[in-house]
Every structure is written in structure tokens, then in C-alpha cells.
Batch of 3 targets.
Target 1
Amino acid sequence: MHPQQVLEEGPGSETGALYAKVARELEAVAADLIVFFDSDHFVNFFFDNMPAFCIGIVDQAEGTDEDRVQMPWYTVRVHEAFARALLGFALEREFDVASKEEMSLDHSILVPLHFLTPRMHVPIVPVYIRGLAAPLPLARRCLALGRMVREFIDRWPGSERVAVLASGSFSLEVGGPRMGRTDHDWQATVVELLRADRIDELVRHATTDRMLSAGNVSGELLNWIALAGALGGGKPLFVEQQTGHAYAVWRPEQG
Amino acid sequence: MSTYAVNKVCHLVERDSAFRERMRRDVDAALAGFKLEAEELQALKAGDVVTLFRRGAHPFLLQNLGRYRLVGLDRESYRQRITSLADD
């Protein structure tokens, strides 16, 4: 969802209502830490150094400094100790993720937080997945990344109640020949498989070619797949669609 | 391959407002320091986003030329040019 459009639409809009539905569930579990799977929009990374996976390790981050994005400026705390420990665990588990100790937050993190935790009182841990520029990491690798993150969450000795968020489109073309179009077949497939908890099937379908044929930034689906890995199975409470993307909540059993 | 330099130019016009102004004032001077091939330099100056796209420039970045009204483009002319490549 385009941030400016979201702000113009406001909390009473369809988008606002969908976010509110997610926010109610997030409030119900009283999360005090959010692990956030996101794809950077050329804010933290450019082609000079573009990791497949990266953990943001800072004490706080601000944004968005995307010049075109009109939205409130936010400062969000990052759980630095958790993030740093996750990096160590990832490497131990043979996920050779990158780390970034100076970063800013882009709209794909801040728009959801604007609606879900507007007081920005819940610290986050950003985990970036290369989703906007091919070559993309494999879907099955992103699923495994999510499982690894879940294992880390379950082992984390702190008392934090951890929620996992993912942000991204299933079908979106930005600035390319198919701009303004949506691959409704792919959207329907993704939503159906998410609703039915057929994640292995989703992973098999979500090849780079298939995702990119649904739009040039549709690799953002990988964030959802990592989220599915972290959830470890189970059907969602709901998956509500909008054009090219969706809003969904799962309530997994505690590990 | 110097697609990297094309992407870099398109990235900087969003991230660096001083560079954006230089692109407006004197495009030749602004682009002088980039390792662009002749065809890319020509296409950039002409707002020929079809050629730049075909050479591998990332559309997410390329669209900045239209968004910031550079090299003779605006959002609408950018859209018209790039969607002329849609395969239907």
C-alpha cells in the first residue's frame, strides 16, 4: 500500500480497518518485541552491497528518509542485544547473514508500525530479505531462515513476548512495463495456500520466475514465506486481501 | 556492463537532492563522473527509459527520472514510455 495513499485514506478507510483488525490481535497478545521480515527499498542497500539476508543491529532507527514518501517521522527502538545474538545464532546455524549497524527504516516497516503500534513503544528487530532485485534467495531458504529465527526466539532467555511481522506484496510492479497491473491468478494462489497452511506447496510455486512474472517487486512474498517458517504451521485467523497483497494474522502455539 | 552506473544515477536523484539539482542545471556536468557507456549516456540525457530498461536498469530506480521531472520526463511520459514495452 502506498504510504501517502494510506495517510490520505486515514484510519476509517478500508486499509485503516484492515490494519485495525491486525492491530487488535497484536494488542491481544501484548507483544513487547517484534521481529520484522522486510525487504529494503534501496534505503539501506544498493547494488554496491546487497545482501540476501541481513539483520539490523542498532539501538534505534529512524525514518523514513525516502524523499518521495509522505508520512510522519518516527524513531523506533531496536532490541540490539536480541539482534546481535540472533546474528550469532544464524551464523552458527549456517545462515551466513549480513549485519548492519547503521540503518534507517523505510516505509515497508514504518507504514505497518504506523497503524499497528502508533506509539512506537514496541522495539523491533529488522531482518532483511533481498526481495526487490534479482537474483533473489530461494523461497525454501527463506522458509528455513524463518524456522531458524523461530528456534532462536524459543531459546531466547528473555521474558519478552515476541511477535513476528512480515511486510510485502504478492503482485506489484513498480516503475516497470506492467505498472498498474496485478497478477490476480498468482494473488489467488498465494492467498489460498496461506489460508490452507499449504506452505510447502507455496514454496514450490514461488520460484523467482513465477514471483517476478507477477511484478518486479513481487519477491517481497519471501518475507511472508520466512514468516511462515517462523510460525511453524497452523492456519491463520484470517487472510484479508487487497489488490496485490493481504493482511493476515496467525496465533501459533507457544514453543 | 555499466548498468550499475545507470542505476546509481537513478538512485542518487532520489537520495541526493544536490545531485538532483545538478541534473536539472547541467546534465552533462552531473553525469561526467559516472562510468557510463556512450549509449547509456545518450539514453539518459534523452530520457530514453526504454533503452535503459532493456539494458537492465532497475525500474524501481529508473522511475525516479519521471518522478523528479528530469531529462525531459514527467510521471506521465515515463509511464507511457515504459508501459509501451508491456507484452500484450
Note: The beta strands of chain A are 33-38, 53-56, 60-63, 74-77, 98-100, 124-129, 162-166, 238-242, 245-249.
Target 2
Amino acid sequence: MSARRLLTVVGALACAMPSGCTTPDPDIVYDAYGGTAYPDKRPKLPKPEGYFAYVSENGSDTISVIDLPRNVRVAQVAVGRDPVDLDGPHHLAVDAKGFVYLALQYPQPTSLPGPHSAHASSTRKGWVVKLAPDDLRILAQVQVDANPGEIVLSPDGTKLLVTHFDLQAALNPSASAEDQKSTVAIIETASFDQPVVPAPRFVKTCRATHGAAITADGRTAFVACYADNALAIVDLVTPGAPVTQVSVGVQGPYSAVASPSGRLLAVGATDGRETRLFDTTTRTPTSITVITPGASYFAAWSADEKTLWIPTQGPDAIVAANAETGAAIRQRRFEAGTCEKPHEATLGRGEGALLYVVCEGDHKKNSVILGLDPTTLETKATIDVGVYPDRMAFTGTP
Amino acid sequence: MRRALVAASLLLASCSSDPETEQRSAVEHGRDLFASTSTSEAKNNVFACATCHRTTPGADDRILPGADLAGAVARPSFWGGKNLDLLRAVNDCRYYFMGAQRAWTDQDADARGMYAFLESLPPAKTDAVAFTVVPSAVDLPAGDPSRGRVVYDKACASCHGAASSGAGKLRGNIPTLPGESVAYFATLGFDRTATRITFVEKVRHGPFLGLYGQMPLFSTEALSDADLGALLAFLALY
């Protein structure tokens, strides 16, 4: 090839490949930002003297923080994962270090007929989130089944039990008996510290699981089976262990609250209007039952296990009863505007503690928690909280 | 011949030079991301932050679902108060609208660049921005179609393209309005009223409240009911 021809070929190649001869785009290297990006500006929770309580507020997507020595709300913090939709924070548990475990239940949205609302008719999964003690930010989260009902922490804080109040499945006549059952989710709390939180262990349990309690040794859970009129006994330690069911002889067991020693459960029935005591050592219902004027919800135990306080709905009332005989000691009906739909009674900690009653309200407006004298049932404090409160959990000591 | 070889090698060498390196600041990093779809790693993402947000109030007259961002770093809350963390607010946009599956942390270079850019903006509005979500869609009275055309051009066209033709739409599967959506609803047996309310529902709820997709939602502050009624009239949905 002659020199002239070589130059011609190279020149032609160069012209045929204009991109190869244009100035290439520069590689861009960005300086690192040296400041503090996204500083934590969340308001820190005031730390009341003594002890305080968290209240889950289903209808306002919030948790209220209650200063119990003063019986006033000191903070209300937005919680949840969804920036638009109602997450439905439904029941919570607090561990010894102050970490809060919150169940999010995601109610079905109310939409008009349309292609989108048709999609919304599917059942929505729930979540459990772990929240930081200082500002309730989400530290970790894990998905559970739809309609999480109760969330219970084992006494040593290593396990969480989450029930699923799946009435749609329970009442579906075309579903098989197995498919009508709800699960419970068993979560190792240490799993929240992993980079990716592993899925919980789900155990098919019974129809419409709701109230639950864990034994003192953390090995067994007793779960209220609302649609089976029974308690399910779940082995929390052995995967694959069979679930057993024991009839409790009440209609619609909704709540199950362990006595301080764990020996007895107060099983509240919303359909049967009674609270039946269940012996966890013999795993049988006792003959002691408290007949209530309305649907029985989550009861409170006295420290000596001799007294029960049972909130009822329809009528809205609180009943103090002898836990050794089932006889009612005192009853107070809440006059209109005082405490609509009492959901839970819980006894405060320490000498002279009040009996707190969580009032659901009308599920649309802010509601209250009443602090009652445990003996007279007179109101000693009224605490403003958010919309549809449903659980009050204590932390700290008086 | 030797001279020809030297010239040829010089010519070829000039075509294979390595690209130069350009150094940019962290603020420029965020500014570039703000205008880029690379804020999300999702391959089908067509949104940039700038699709839905202005940086400075009054910079243009688009009707945007997202708040103006000047002053955002000082705001106490976002998304109408449901979100108390700026980074989480950013990640929510990346997840719900841009399809990102990995949340940024405050140590990610992109996240830090975005913060530098937002911090560099003037503190025009440091209060929380009102963001009222309509919980249940309802039918709206018809507005003025000529106003509706303006609303369409300022609020819808940037993603859906030109009305009726879809010319210039951001992505092929974004429906051309109103034709493709109306035709789809017809296959579901929707009458005119149900179709209209479904339009309202999509505008007000975006991918939330049980819906699907990646369309950002318009709060009542971003788009009034009157303007939405005008838009429905322009789209001949009455």
C-alpha cells in the first residue's frame, strides 16, 4: 500500500467514525458532601419522671405518650409506613429497654366502585414495626398476615406473638376448614437487628385468632379463637408441633389476659357477654365466669389475682369482679360522652395506681383514657388521646 | 511512507483518547440527580424529582403534585405530617413513584448529594406544606372546559402527552387521555358517572388507598376541586 493510499484509508476511517473522533463525554466525579446529611430533627420524646405509657391510636396513625404521674399526654407521634394511607396502628408492646413493637393492620380503604377499588378489595397484609425509644422512628419492620389483632411479647422479651383476626376467612363458607383458619406469627425479636428481617414463622392456628397470652417460660401461647369458641395452645419453640384446641365454653372469645403469675387467663367473650377464667396449668376452663352487662373486652388483674376489672361495650361499662367467685363487686355504666366503647382496662404500676380504661370513641374523633379509682371506679383523671385508641402499655417504674 | 505511517498513527491516536474527568461539587451532584431519572435504579422509571417538584416557588406555572423544595431541609414534616424524616420522604417518592427497591441511607453518595442540593436552595418555605388527601373520591360538578384545557396542559401533559393523541407522553404504557382510559373502563362496564369518579379517584389517590400504578397524587392544595371539575369537563367526561 502506498503512503498516499494509507493516508486516504486512515482518513476515510476517521471520517466514517465520527463518534470516535469527537470529544468523549467527560467522566464526572462529584465531591462528597462533607456536612451532616439528613440530620435527625424528629422531636425527641420528653422523658417524664417516673414512668409513662404508650397508646396506639388506630384511627389517627399515631402513638400518644402519657406521663402517668401527671396523667397527661406529653407527645403524639405519627407512626406507620405509608405516607398517605391509614396504617391502622393496632395494639403495641414495649420491651424492658423501651423499644416499641407496633402492629399495623391496614384497614380496607373505602372507595367508590371503580377498577381501582376492585383491586382494593383484596386483603391487605399487615406489618410489625420496631420503634426507637427516643423518638419512635422505625428501626425495622416485617410483614405479617392481614388483620393483625394482638401483639404480645414473651416475658424475657425474645419472642413476639402476633395473631390475625381474619374474619373474612373464618366466615367464608366455601373455604376449607384449614383455609378458614388464621395464623399466628412467631417473631424472634433479635431478627429485627438483622440487615434484612427474616419472615416470621407462621402457624395455622384456628378461626379468627385474636387475644393471646404467653406463659412465663416463653414456651407456650394461649390464643383466643373467636370463631371457634375455643383457646388454641401453640408451642412457640418447636416448629411443626401440633396446635391443640380447648373449648372455653363462651361465645366469641375475643381477649385473653394473663394474671400476674400467669396461672389464670381472663377470656373475654364479646358475643357471650361474659369473662371466663382459664387455668393454664391444667389447660382447662375453670368454673369461674363473670357475667357482664355487655360484650366483654380486655380485662385487668389485680396484683393479688383476687380482682378483675372488665370493660364492656353495649352498654359501655366497667365491672369489678371477685376473681375467686366470679361475683360482681361493683359496676359503673359510663354516661354518654364519658367513655365510648371501652376496649381495655389496665392497672397502673405501683402503690395507689389508677385503673386505666382505654375508650375507643366513635373511631372518627379524638378520644380519651379514663383513670379510675380501682375501688370506687370514680374518675380521677381524663387523658386526651387520638382517634380510636386500643392499647395502653407501660414502661418505666413509678 | 514513514511520514504517512506517523500521520496515520497520530490521526488514529486522536480518535482513541480517554475521556476527560470533570470534577463537580456535591451541590451539582444533587442538582444533576434532581433532573435525572437515575434517582431510581428501576429500568422503567421515567420520573425525575423535577417531574413533580419545583425548586423555587414561582419558577414556572406548572400545576405539580409535589411541593416546592426550597426550604425543605428545614421543614418539620412532610407528606401532610405523616412523615417526619426528610430522607424517608425522599425514599417514599423513590419507592412509590419511581419504583426504587433500595432505600437510600444517609451515607449513600447520591442521597448526600441530593441533601447538599436541597440545602443550597433558598429557605423560601420552612413550614410544613399542607397536603390534604381526599379520603373518598366523589363526583364533582363540571367546570369550564377552557379552564380545563389549561389545567391539562399544566398538570397532565408532561406525563400523559397531548390530550387525545398522547403525543410526547413519558412512557408508552401511560394512558392517552381520555380515550385509552375511557375505553378501558368501558370494558369493565362502567357508565359515564363511574368513569368520571374513577378519574377523580386516580387523581386524588395516585397509587395509594388500595390503588396501583405510579401516578403521583394531587392534594386539594395542589389541584382544587374546581380545577379538577374543569379538567373533567375538558376531557368530555360528563
Note: Chain A touches chain B through 54 residues (CB under 8 Å).
Target 3
Amino acid sequence: MNVDLADRIAALRDEVLDTVERGEQGALNGEIFDATLRCLVAFEATDPGIDLALHDALSRRLAWGDSEHALLAEADEVCERLLASARRALREPSEEMLVVEAVTQIACTAARIVANAAIARAGTDRAAVLREQAALKRLREAVARQQEELARLGDPLAE
Amino acid sequence: MTTPPPLRIRAAGATHPGRVRDNNEDCLLIEQNLGLFGVFDGMGGHHAGEVASATARDAVRDAVRDAKGATHFVEREALEAALQQASVVVHAESSRRKARRGMGTTAVLAQVGGTNTVTVAHVGDSRAYLLRDGRLQVLTADHTIVAELLARGALDPDEARTHPYRAVLSRNLGAAPETRPEFCHVQLQAGDRLLLCSDGLSTFASHRAIEQTLAGAGDPDTTAKELIELALKGGGGDNVTAVVIEAGRKEVPRRTQIIRTSGANAWWSQRDLFLQQAAARDIARSPICAVLSPGEAVDIVAGNLCEAIYRDLEQTTGIHVWTYAENLVAGWLDQDGDFAVVRDLLDRLASAADAVVEHIGATHFDMGALLGLAVPRALLVAELASGGMISKRLREVEAQIVEAQSALAASESFSENVTVPIDVPRADPPSPAVARCLDAALELALADARTHKRPREDGIVADCLERAHKAARDHGGQLDGMLAARELFGTCALGEPAIAPLLDALDRARLTHVSAVKRAPGDDACRAAALRRIATAHRMLCSSTARIVVDGGSSVTDRHREMLEQISLLRRKVADNERRIQTLEGRYKTQPGWAPPRGEA
């Protein structure tokens, strides 16, 4: 457990998420930051809850319509800002190494979650494309039948 | 106040199992002597729906017959009592046998009274329609969950059309001993037609198609069969039943028809004047008429428009002028003609038409006023048709451009595209101590990676380690991750089985590398600097790999979106064609002199 270090990093929250500059609405989302804190608290112990919580938070944002690219860009930005703030705030290199390690782990996990979400979406879309292809075929056949019917009825617009 | 003479009521019905189902759970009720008509749509597995609808029909008929025998007969009370009685009977039958548990039925009833009133009662989503003066209106509101949400404003019509619960009834007959029917009263007029139908018709035929068929000249029997055909043409996905009730019959043409016909005749009688006016406006000199003699130009170009306007006025459609304008514009654009020429010709023809209308108005003021609205409307249709043709051409040109661009893109190899930003941000080079630490960390990490003895996976991990190490040495970790990730990604298929090993390898490489840096020789400050560089490189690598996967998935999403647009276009086309077929069929039905062309149906 490294609660002391996590507390000191938690104090950097407003600075990292740029709350003052961007306001509450425009501030960066805190998923990456919070997950990093949990990672620091867990230290070297394994905590599957971190991945689950991060997965949950990112999935919710995707469900609300944020794009995958936006999530990745925001994760990069939060990591950069957190590393810069931590480097300035922490005097012990060993402590900074812990933060760097935690940030990298969370950033890579976030990237993996987003990639998996994109794969799942592509799978769904691919299945939908197959379904729509069948629907298109049926519609084209229906149009052809209608054109024949129109031609039979002497419609001047029949192709 | 005198009681109106009773209208002669004629009724007929038809029912069909549809194209999908084997059995027919609908049934109809026509009791001419009682003035009672109805449609029932049963539901419930193992043929229970058939039992429910037939039981309800018999119970309603018997109840109304008994009530008619009594001295005091009130339509609404009789129908309500009959439906309650039917609900009790169906529910009792459903409770008696396990196989029929949960069965029920919808019901829509029409009871014609002596003073030409009709009382309509309904439960469920079977409907009653009234056709009056060629306009169709729904008399009943569906008792479905979605319809009630729609009425409360909780859903909009688009959501309602695709709502998963759109077929779930909020009221029916038989699910419980009591039922809550809804009533409405209509004072019948000569020429009115009532339609009672199950949802197999209202779901698989459009409102307009039902309106046109019901307004046709056929007797109730023919019309009911035509309505069934309509639903079958629309897919026939459910049992379909229709009962058509006709009140009297208007033999005299309606006022609107007289006005329509006389307006059209007045226009046609001035055909020669229109041709003269068109000739006076030099339409023969238009480049569109270049291959025609002046006489032919006037006869063909102006004469055809005159006839198209006449037919549209007579039939209250726009199809003839629309067709005329489309043919004119398409022919001209096929010769790579300029649209301004079409515009000029249409303006000249419109001016000639104005002169004719003015001439008619000078002798018959009312007719002039009528045509002063109708003829410009017909010419507006020509404008719309020509605009549509232009837009169609633009879409074709756009498709050609897109195709040409795709062909161009396909002809270029990957290396010819600039995918790597030239200005890669570089950090300061590492100090000699940090560089030594990084080199040592790589050696340690590679040694660790080899201990797993899985050559293929170890190969990818080693590759990741070397790329991250190079980035950490050269750019302080700020490499263009996309380039390195692309090379690592290679030709992975976009699916979890192909991509998961790469993501696993990236994870393993990162953990191994970080662990190795911690063990590398040097002081804490030196190791911290090395770790910053290594961590940044790995982070970029992971993030860029995720971006490549996302981009790959987006192309599938885009394709899906394009297909949905195509489907939407085709659906509109199918609907348009269906309307056109209905119009043409309607023409053959309503005009005695016309006969449908022979050909294979």
C-alpha cells in the first residue's frame, strides 16, 4: 500500500485535469487519473477492480457517444500532464518511478480497452453489413419486379 | 325535423392467412339483417387464436341478436354488453383448457342503426376506417402500448414505427373476464364506405393505397378482395381480413369532378391558341428543337405539354407533366446540353400558358380563376421534375468522381503516401549514464523475454522491446508511434483472435522493460530518467496500435452507414413505384374506355 504517495498525487487532480482553466464542464475526464490513484494505492498487489472500473468508465463514455479517438487523445493528454506534474511535485526519483509505472500501465490498459471496443463494434457492424446486403438484394429484386409491372401497365417512367 | 330515408347498406368481406402463416386466426362477421359487422383477430398458440376469434364472433352475434329482440335497443349499450359477454366466454374457454391459456382476440364492430348512424366499437388493434368524398380517415385508435405512449407524447412517430413493442396490445378481449371497449358514432352519408380490418391490412398496406382501393369503382365484394391482394402484395406477413360496408351509392358525379372535368375541357379547347402562343414565343428556335422543323417543334414540344396539362387537370395528378419534363430534360442533358436552355424553354411555354389562361378568364371569369391556380401548379411540377433531373445528374457525376479517386488511390503503393509526419518531435539525447542504463535494460529485458520459450510470441515481444528502446534512445520516447505500431501491426485481420496476441505482446514487453530498467546499473535519478523515456515509448506504441484498430473498424462502420443510405433510397423507390402502380391500376379501373395492356402479370 502506498497511500501517502497516492494522497500527494490526488492533490494534483485540479492541476492535471485542468479544472480551473477549462471549468467543470470542459475539464478533462478523470477516469485515467482515478485509475492511476487506485493503481498507486494497490502498489505491487494485483487489483482486478482497477481494470474493471476503467473498463466501466470508458465503456460508459463510448456509450454516451464519445469517439474512440477522443478517448485515446484525452488519455494521452492526462498522462502527459500527470507525469509532468508528478515530476515537479515529487522529489524522490523512486517515487516518481512508481508514478511513471502506474501511469504507463493505466494508459496501456485504456488503449487496450478502446481497441477491444473498436473490434467489438467492427464485428457488430460487419454482421450488420451482411444483413443489409441481404436486404439490399431483396429490395433490388422488388424494384425489378415493380419495373416489370410498370412496364406491363405501360408506365412511361418504367426503366 | 324529418328522419332521413334509410340508406341501402351493402357489405362484403374477405379473409386470407397471408403469405407467412399457415393458419388463419382472423374471422369476420357480416349479419346484414342485424346491421352488425365485425372483424376479430385472435392470438394464442396451438390454434387457440382461431378458437378465440370464432368464440368471440359467435358470442357477439348471439348477444346482439338477443338484444335486438328486446323492446328497447340502443346500439352502444348492445355492443358493450355483447363485447363484455364475449370476453367472459373467451376467458372461460381459455381457463378451461391448459393449451388455450392466455388466448384472446381483438374486435372491431360496426352496428348500423335505423337513422343512418353507425356505432363503432373496438378493442385491440383491429381498425375501422371511413371513406368520405375520396378521403380516408381512421375512426379507431389502436389499443397498443406504443400507440398509448405516442398519444401521451412519450414517443415520436418515427420511434413508434420501429418500437420493439409496437405489436403488443394494451387491451384485448378474453385475457380477463372484463374488457374496456372504445366507441365512436358516425352519421352516414350516401357514398360513404366503412372498412373494418385486422392489422394484417393496416400494417402491410399504406394508408394511401387503402384509400385508393376503397375509393375504386368496385362493389364491396370486389373491393374487399382487392384490399386483401393489397396486403399480400405488401408482404402478407400476417393474417388479413377486411369487411367493406357501403352506404347507398352516389350515381351523380361529384361537384369537384364536374369542376375538374370542365376545367380540363376548357384548357383543351384552347389547344390551338396555346400552340399559336408557343409559336409566337419562338420555341422552335430553342436549341432543344434544333433537329425538328418549326411546325414539328410546336406540335411536339408545346402539343405534348398541352396534353399533359389536360390529363393532369382531369385526373388531379401531376404525373403527366412530371413525365413530360423529365423526358425533355433527360434527353437534352444526354446531349451534354446546358440547363439554361431548358430553363428558357420552360419559361416561354409558361408564358404561353399564362396567355391562354388570361384568354379563358376574359370570357369565363370563374374558369379563368380556376385555371389560374391549376395551370401554374402543373407548370410548377415541371420545374420540380427538371430540378430532380439535375440533382440526379449531379449525383451521377459525384459517383464518377468518387470512383475515379478510388481507382487513383488504389494505383498508389503504400510507400508513395506520406503517412509519417516529417517533423517528428525530438527530445534531448540521453546523457551517457542514462544511455548506458537503457542499453543494459534492453539486454536484461531481451534475456527475460527469451526465458518463456515460446519463439513466435517471444519474437513479437523482442520486436516491441527493440522498437521502444530505439525510440527511448533517439527521441526520448516521443517517437511517431503510429509508424512503429503500423510495422508491428503488419497485416493483422481486424478481429480479436488476430489482435489479442499483439496486445498481449505489447503488455509483456512493457512489463519486462520496466522491470529491467529498475534492475539496470546506475543511481535512482538515472533509472528514473531511463524509465520516463521507456514508459513514454511503450505508451505511444500501445496508443497508436489502438488507433490503427479503431481506424480499421471505422471503415466497416462507414460501409454500414453507406448501405443504410442505399437501403433508404431503395425503400423510397419501392414506395414510389407502388404508388405509381396503384395509380395506373386505378386508372384502368375507373375509366371504362381504358383496358389494362396485355402482358405477363
Note: Residues 36 and 44 of chain A are 13 Å apart (CA to CA).
